[in-house]
Amino acid sequence: MIENLSFDSNDKRSVVLISNYLSNIISNESNKGNPIVFLCIGTDRSTGDSLGPLVGNKLNLLTRNNLNIYGTLKNPIHAKNLTETMNEINTTFNSPYIIAIDACLGKLNSVGNIFINNGPLYPGTALNKNLPPVGDLSITGIVNIYASIDFMILQNTRLYNVMKLADVISTSIHQAIIKSDLCINGSRMKLHN
Does the keyword RNA-binding apply (predicted)? Predict the structure, then answer.
């Protein structure tokens, strides 16, 4: 498995590339019997930090079989409830595979990029918050530039940029789930032959 991947949300191929990568992971984890948990981190009180809840909202219609969504616009997962939510996930599910999704700040030429890392996400680092790392796989969208006044940068991030990233990430996940369902169902059918 590749450690780090980067995709430009403006590239029309990004949805296909991301969904292909994620569908293999979802299929493998589902075949192992591990429930898939999407942990969408952020808050709707800050435009730049709303990426996670926006993705969660878009994915909320997907909850089925082994898929579980935490973090929506209605019930966001943020610094104040992240530890409690992680405890709930680990109590509710046996060996969950957690895909953590969050907004991130970066260099000017990275704004609009989506990064997938085969490892945990470190939420709150841009705002110097001491939160535990979360996730087996992390998806971050660069919503704006990193600067010394990160709180103001997040507050003044264009909603268009955040929505574009949320659309690409959620569409990629939708397609990955469809592809992985086909793979899982196809392999089950082959096992019964």
Answer: no
Nearest one of 47, 49, 33, 96 to 69, comparing CA atoms: 96
Q: Are the beta carbons of 6 and 115 closer than 8 angstroms?
A: yes
Backbone angles phi, psi at 42, to 5 degrees: 145, -175
Split into its structural domains, the chain has a count of 1
**24/177 Cα distance (integer angstroms):** 10
Tell how strand 36-40 and strand 97-106 pair up.
parallel
Q: Residue 145 corresponds to which amino acid? A: I
Q: In this structure, how many other beta carbons lie within 10 angstroms of the beta carbon of residue 98?
A: 23
Tell me how far apart the terminal alpha carbons of the chain are, to the nearest angstrom.
30
Half-sphere exposure of 56 (CA within 13 A, CB side): 29
Q: In this structure, what CATH number is given to the domain that contains residue 153?
A: 3.40.50.1450
130-176 pLDDT, tens digit per residue, is 788 999 999 999 998 877 666 677 777 888 999 999 999 999 999 99
